[in-house]
Amino acid sequence: MIGGGGAATAAALAAHEAGSRVLLAVKGRFGVPGGRGAGATSNPIADFWTIRTVGPKGGLFNTPDAVHADMLQTGLGMADPVLCRVFVDEIGDTLRRLDDMGLRFRSKMLATLSANSAAGGTNGIVATQKALIHDADIPVLEQANVVDLIVSGGRCVGALGVDDLGEPFVIEAGAVVLATGGVGQLFQWSFNPPGNTGDGYAMALRAGAELFNMEFMQQGLATTWPTQAIVMLYEVDEPYRLVNASGRSFVESYLPSGVELRAVTRSKSHHWPVSCRDESIHLDRAIKAEALAGRATANDAVLLDLSAVDRGFEPELFVKFMLSKGIDVKRDLVHVQVHHHTSNGGVRVDADGETRVAGLFATGETIGWQGADRLGGTMLGGSQVFGRRAGAKAARASAARPAVTLGAAAADPLIDRIRCLREASGRVRPSELRLGLQRTLWETLLVEKDVESLARARSFLAEDRDRLEADVAITEPGDLVLALEQRNLHDVAEAIVEAASARTESRGSHYRSDYPRRDDANWMTNLFASHVNGELSLRREWVAREHGWTDRPGDVRIKPWG
Which neighbouring-strand residues pair with 162? Predict the structure, then answer.
């Protein structure tokens, strides 16, 4: 199991229960919130977490069929109906299992977990499952920066990594589960912990698996100073004040003709994520554009005045959490900007988390099953549902695999590449490359894109690849790890840029200002990315073709939806 968050720990426990010998390989320290290897599950950036609940079949509220329909509607035709059905059928048992582990939810209608001070300010899922892993004597390899998968005869037979001292290591395995989270470190403003560098996406691509829906990324409002914390404006219909660094209101200057500010803020009260499905997109556009125009604070923020309004959902949690971060929302202006949150796409897997590469599985944010937008609480819950499924199936696959020994021919070329990179003596440190990449891709890919911004991103990526290959300086072991992560970020960014360029429409979280309308006639299809002879290739296939999808009047049934 590669990863250290909620999906990885769920998979490890399931594989152990199925009788497998399990090794959990974790970047950095296991279960330390906010650090390398902690996973987004335990990143302390919000006042509450929610797992989407599903009621009984035949009940009056949140039946499996109703939630399944909500997920497909939120995804605007791009979600995988089969995997969404697995989620609604199994999330009830998942919640009962978490309850048996000792996690306590605030309500049954929404399984809400408030920030847990005993677990470092997080939701406690990783801390709880970490204790179970310890009790089960499952070995954990820390400071294990896994950088490539080893494929022999069309089967994944292990993985290659480097430790924090820059020394390579090889792990032979009957099956490998990728649970490496998303690619938040691709962007300057993101909630993801420092280890979330798209490793699973990139390794899967190079191993022969496919990615899909990579153009769909969840983004939303959060503070940039004095800390990072999600700011959800649920059920806040009032036109709260937003001003730039000079104290001037600005949102109305970005509104199209005929769109009123009240309509924009009312739409924003229905969901936190950036989405072009309604007028709220113009609020997010305005906030980011004001920063790009140079009228934000020194930390890219605009100022949000919430002194006269209250959030409708769990307002006391928000006020208390912000106070713990040094912000009194009834007195202080809140410094906010749009952040990357999660990827809705990812590695293409079946219902058991298996990729098209034998012996290779994936789960958590590493997999793609959500659509253009996603319901709140499905990512956290899905990491548990699909984590257990992937772990159990990987255990069976490992036990049944043919006798395969990891030979030198499969691993040596990968090791040689690492040793060659370790000797690089150029002029630029990988940390410097990281900053430039994050700023450029935040500017060009988040909230809104057009042909020019995508061309700029593509050009920057090509130049940055050249810098990494020809001019990087490895002066200490940490540089080697960052350089290998930079390669992964490049591979994932290329998939995002090319998918976003190909999709000449706007749908959910994918907003093209040069193609601002949804185009079901031409774009009721998913985009799949793979490597063909080392080059990125895209193909079109609609995963919901057999199930079908029709836009539902009134959109998502329950608001706020995410």
Answer: 145, 168
User: Which one, of 201, 205, 204, 199, lies nearest residue 25 by Cα?
Assistant: 199
Under CATH, to which class is 6-216+344-400 assigned? alpha beta
Helices (H), 75-221: 81-101, 125-135, 199-207
* Chain centroid offset of residue 43 CA: 12
Q: Are 41 and 383 in contact (CB under 8 A)?
A: yes
Q: What angle do CA 66, 68, 74 make, to 5 degrees?
A: 100
Asked if 327 and 269 touch (Cβ cutoff 8 Å), the reply is no
What are the domain boundaries of the chain? 6-216+344-400, 219-339, 408-518
Per-residue pLDDT of 263-288, as tens digits, reads 999 999 999 999 999 999 999 999 99
Please state, in angstroms and as integers, the Cα–Cα distance from residue 409 to each residue in 61, 161, 406, 413, 497, following that order.
Answer: 57, 17, 8, 7, 34
Please say whether the beta carbons of 309 and 239 come within 8 A: no
CATH class entry, domain 219-339:
alpha beta
> Does this model's pTM top 0.85?
yes
Distance CA 83, CA 101 (A): 25
pLDDT digits (tens, 9 = 90+) for 485-499: 999 999 999 999 999
